[in-house]
Amino acid sequence: MAEKDSGRHPDSSFNDLLQPVYQGKGLTDPIKTAEDKWLLLPAFLKVKGLVKQHLDSFNYFVNVDIKKIVKANERVVSDVDPEFYLKYLDIRVGMPQRREQNSLNTNIHPQECRLRDLTYAAPVFVDVEYTRGKKIVIRKGLEIGRMPIMLRSARCVLTGKDEKEMANLMECPLDPGGYFIVNGTEKVILVQEQLSKNRIIVEADEKKGIFQASVTSSTHERKSKTYILTKHSKIYLKHNSISEDIPIVLALKACGIPSDFEILQLVAGADSRYQEAFSINMEECAKLNIFTQQQALEYIGSKVKTSRRPMSPRLTPLQEGLEALANTVIAHITVNDLDFREKAIYMAIMTRRVLMAMVNPQLVDDRDYVGNKRLELAGQLLSLLFEDLFKKFNSDFKTSIDKVLKKPNRTSEFDALMNITIHSNNITTGMNRAISTGNWSLKRFKMERAGVTHVLSRLSYISALGMMTRISSQFEKTRKVSGPRSLQPSQFGMLCPSDTPEGEACGLVKNLALMTHITTDDEEEPIKKLAYVLGVEDISTITGHELHSPGAYGIFLNGTLLGIARAPMKFVTRFRNLRRKGRVSAFISFNINHHHKAVHIATDGGRICRPLIIVEKMKSLVLPKHIEALKEGRMAFDDFLKKGIVEYLDVNEENDCNIAIYEHQINNSTTHLEIEPFTVLGAVAGLIPYPHHNQSPRNTYQCAMGKQAIGAIAYNQLQRIDTLLYLMVYPQQPMVKTRTIELIQYDKLPAGQNATVAVMSYSGYDIEDALVLNKASIDRGFGRCQVLRKNTTTLKRYSNQTHDRLDGIKKDQNGDPIFKHSILENDGLPGVGEQVSSGMTYVNKQVPTNASDSMLGAPGGPIESYEDYKDSPVVYKNPEPSYIDKVLITASESEQPLVKVLLRQTRRPELGDKFSSRHGQKGVCGIIVQQEDMPFSDSGVCPDIIMNPHGFPSRMTVGKMIELVSGKAGVLDGSLQYGTAFGGSKIEDMSKILIEKGYSYSGKDMLTSGISGECLQAYIFFGPIYYQKLKHMVLDKMHARARGPRAVLTRQPTEGRSRDGGLRLGEMERDCLIAYGASQLLLERLMLSSDAFEVDVCSVCGLMGYNGWCTTCKSAKNVYKLTIPYAAKLLFQELLSMNVAPRLKLDDAF
Amino acid sequence: MAYTKPRNRVGIEHDRVTDVSSTDFPGYYPGEDHSWSIEKFKNHFKVHIEYLNELNSEFDLIGVDPSIANAFRRIMISEIPTLAIEYVYIENNTSIIQDEVLAHRLGLIPLKANPDYMHWFKKDDPEFEPTDYDTLVLHLSAKCTVNPNAPEGTTDPKMLYNNAHVYARDIVYEPQGHQTEWYPDGVTAANPDILIAKLRPGQEIDLSMHCILGIGQDHAKFSPVATASYRLLPTIDIIGEPITGELASKFKSCFPKGVVAINSKGEAVVKDARKDTVSREVLRHPEFEGRVKLGRQRDHFIYCVESTGAIPPDQIFLKSVQLLKKKCEILRKFNLSA
């Protein structure tokens, strides 16, 4: 048999499989596994939390980056007084503080900020050294502004607090943090995805035959993009600040490599293919008669687009060329002492990459490859913003001191600090405005980015969590390209494959997987030194010939060539060993690219990486004893890192590895072992039980719907006053859990209930995914939810000393309050617990009639009399009544009184309310059935929900069926079952439990009809499924009108439910009526019921008159009454106003 | 020997249920008399009580049509009047449970009060004033305070505070008028341990409640049963050769305990089919194909009535019979045969 097979397969690889030992593994080798290695996950999340990327990034900014920014801009000098200087010695961000300085307790906590519409911010202190007269003065702890603080970051009062302390601060211990509170609203800075900076990307346009290498240089001062591209198979340098493309040889000559031979060697090496392809460029340069560096620089200088400031002196072309080459082209390579060699080599490498792509078009880079992407987080964005504001702050400070110093004789000694505090508001407001509006405008990069921040969605716990892991792409949504939207293989384990919205943002908005980490910037310098120690030959000592000699690999640190190594594998292994020993940061990655003969070392921030178990000699380094230690709490996740048995890999380094998913798959080429396969999914997709049995889009749908489910939001949900809050009265944790559910603690803040579902058709009101609900279940509290709505009223103060006020109750002749004021108390505010129905006032506000003129001059002075105020009450308009849940009276930051009233509605499910299971199967309630009409099982159980079986065949949500069987087994067994992705409770075991408890293995029961009392002829799939109630409820949507308001301009009915608008008979409906020939109906719908208007038309001139009189003809003789749509009349008049005279020709109709 | 299924059997196949409807009506079998007569019914009809206690009961009705059996079940669930809390007047509620939710929870508490003494409260009549004939008044007030005598270091809220948990037993009945005669023992919750709310120091609940008559059709809280249902008596027929040896024990394991026994000859015999849960496990195994026939007796109903505690289960069933009788009498008044 084996011989026969091998004969059929001449491919020798198949024969290998039949050998007793394949890839170092015998078929009978025992499999040793460290069970429960998933326990590493909670350990990981314990250290890092779900939003660690935001916190790490913010902490890095506050602790490190902000100091670097100040260091880079440390001196402020005056143009006027050369003696004067101010130097920043240090900068610190303090702990959050109340702004009211005179308050007893300056500490502030986040919940107070939410309730009082404050900003959760901390003062920023600097230490300065400056000259006052002839003396040098040092001042410490000077406040220069306030910085919004990320919750749970190092500067937040919540860090390190236990559950009880959190409760005292009215904070939910399960809240992930990672967002800001600005003016009382919670704002998230979404993670931004963009192409890596300072890296070469080679692309090809196959149709046009263009190859180009581009690099986006980014430094603190400027951002610019440099291209090296082919045009008619000649290579040019292109840059925005240079008006023409520069031949590459010319550019290299300008960089101080005058010899053609050296250029050829640097670019092409000894390879004749590249030499041939490149030689044409030599000619190009020679034709222009440029042979020396000076000539080349002058040529470039003459092409530079100059945008000089008016004051500065004119530069010669040579100077222009020098400056362009040194500062704008490939700006991230700095030029010291006019030594252009490094830049020349960088250009040569870019050119070589273009040549390589020309020779072999496959050697282009993939833009969508995750390794070429960097994620920009809150810390980086804030650091850009802060640097901009800080520079502005310094220049404002400088102009203001210059103004003073200009004056020759001052009365007193000038203290510069008097001027510095004036501008501190700029930093505070700049930060606040950027975060609250989401508009990031940076003057130095001319960057204008909108929509950076979003309001944290508190619809459910999951929606808040999902928002914290969201990544938005800079890519345009409107473009129809599939590349950036499609799932990249390199996303595996880094980005969730399921969690992306449908529609226009599909694939552009992504979510992080469960076990990802985003790096922050690391120091380059020590790595550079270490590289030299480990045998890298410095680039400055290397010729082009050596660079491209066989066996030599270029060593690149963050995309810049450092030197070459002749034994790259050894170099990388040694470096990796250093990392595993903890000698260099764990987040530095090394990877070898054999196509480019390059070793890339990356220390930059924004790379996505994830932890993996190291495998050595075919053995996982994580042994059962380690897991034992982890269970007993003797080891934490960081100990695994320190021991060098777990390490972080980024996407590029993953390419050098062979990662086994399960321990039994380890062979002799395996380098790493996956911690748990279900970590490929994100937090939101992790809620789905048995997702690996579902059709992929269903999981994506659930990811969108899980965020709309009503449930518990946070432990402090009843303390919060949000604009809109949905809560479930009796939420339950799911019968079928997943490991992810436990890790993100969804079981403590659930959003749904375990409904007993019968999969059968019933009543005919269940078509198109409609559900049948049991009335008794609803009576007992199934699907009951609460809607809390906020109303904010501010009592404004006006410039003329007047202010808004609250008035008391108006009473009728019997001394009872009038209906409108029946729920008010004497202070003009409603009583807590009262029912408000339509037309009632619940905040009896009055505003002064005169808020602009000064009242001081008026007779009697500013006495408040009753006539001075007019009513401006807050009236409840909803036809469905609410209850007053809370009334909060407080003051905002500007010390204006603030009244917040929270209104509550408790709703039971009704016809048309939307429900969904966790498998993307949504449906509305189609009918509510009495319990006695429901089918029942032998044990007397009747379903809460009946679901139509037609929902299954086309959707292929097998996971839902398995959830039902597992849930049923769990109910009978008294245990919670697991539906974890790629694992979970096995269906065989579940069936065994069912049989044991006397049920059918399949989960199908024999049911009796509640209507006829006879047995049903089919066995019914019957058991619990976790159902979510979604926020879309009929009560908020139902709308109808007969007569109602009309728009002022057109006199047509208004649009939309909120304006009590009409229901539009649209174009397509109109088409139907035309086609049918129902002309009278059409006339009624489109004119009589809409905007019919009677006009007087003169049959002589065809224009409209009025009152039976034609103003044009000055006669009443031929004026007729006519009914036309008001919109038509309006059109005629508007045309008239434009000097176009539309004339109506009247004729007898019959 | 070929197996012929008795007429009153529902057939249980591995994938479907056959013969669910009864066939003993006139004209179905040619030449047989199936006309209904009270004498025949009396001869056939049997009642057997399996067990009966304060809250649960199981009894058999043998020899009735499913339509009649189902009518009793439906009436028990939805039409027997009971008393439940309908109006809640909240004086003070500073607990974290909202007023509506608290009222809903109170409404669902089953009350031990005989509904027979009460009259209907006319909800639809806005002029109708509650009287002692139709309304029971209950009161609940609880205030949570710190327990000064709490043992050191305890974290149990029940120890730390007084009245941390409010239970159904805290509800106090206030007799009105004649009610002292009807309810000499007062009115209490059927289960005193139902948790109504949890309080913390400083929180307080103070409310009074009105209980009125209602039926389960209107709201599930008025239903006197937790569940009332029936199942048909399962039958197991071993056909052909007896099942012996190892197969017999496998056969036995396909049923719940006590259904199948193995006799002295090593043959599997059906001992008590009533205990079978009809899991159809035996039909999965090819070795038993054609050797066993499962079924259920169509006119043998095993009722299971679980009371919420307001009315004893036997009373519930008798009331359902009375109600059905009353309905029939109403129908008869209309002289339908004319």
Question: Explain this structure to me?
Answer:
The complex is a heterodimer of chains A (1150) and B (338). By secondary structure, chain A is of the alpha+beta class. Chain A folds into five domains: 48-174 and 183-193 and 382-456, no CATH class; 207-360, Alpha-Beta Complex (Dna-directed Rna Polymerase Ii 140kd Polypeptide, Chain: B, domain 3); 517-680, Hypothetical Protein Ta0175, Chain: A, domain 2, CATH 3.90.1070; 685-784 and 910-1029, DNA-directed RNA polymerase, subunit 2, domain 6 (Dna-directed Rna Polymerase Ii 140kd Polypeptide, Chain: B, Domain 6); 786-851 and 874-907, OB fold (Dihydrolipoamide Acetyltransferase, E2P) (Beta Barrel), CATH 2.40.50. Chain A is built from 31 helices and 54 strands. In chain A, strands 21, 27, 28, 29, 30 and 31 form a six-stranded mixed beta sheet that branches. Chain A has a six-stranded mixed beta barrel with strand order 34-48-35-46-45-51. Chain A is globular and about 100 Å long. Chain A starts with a helix and ends in a 13-residue tail after the last helix. Mean pLDDT of chain A is 87; it is low at 1-12 and 27-32. By secondary structure, chain B is of the alpha+beta class. Chain B has two domains: 9-79 and 227-240 and 291-306, RNA polymerase, RBP11-like subunit (Gyrase A, domain 2, 2-Layer Sandwich); 82-222, RNA Polymerase Alpha Subunit, Chain A, domain 2. Helix content of chain B is 20%, strand content 31%. Chain B has helices at residues 38-44, 66-78, 99-107, 157-160, 179-182, 245-253, 313-333, and strands at 9-12, 17-18, 46-52, 56-62, 82-93, 111-112, 136-143, 145-146, 161-162, 165-167, 172-174, 188-189, 195-198, 204-214, 225-238, 260-262, 268-270, 292-307. In chain B, a hairpin with a 4-residue loop joins β1 (9-12) and β2. In chain B, α2 (66-78) crosses α7. The longest helix of chain B has 21 residues, at 313-333. The relative contact order of chain B is 0.20. The chains are: A alpha+beta (1150), B alpha+beta (338). At the A-B interface, α25, β47 and β51 of A face β2, α2, α3, β15 and β18 of B.
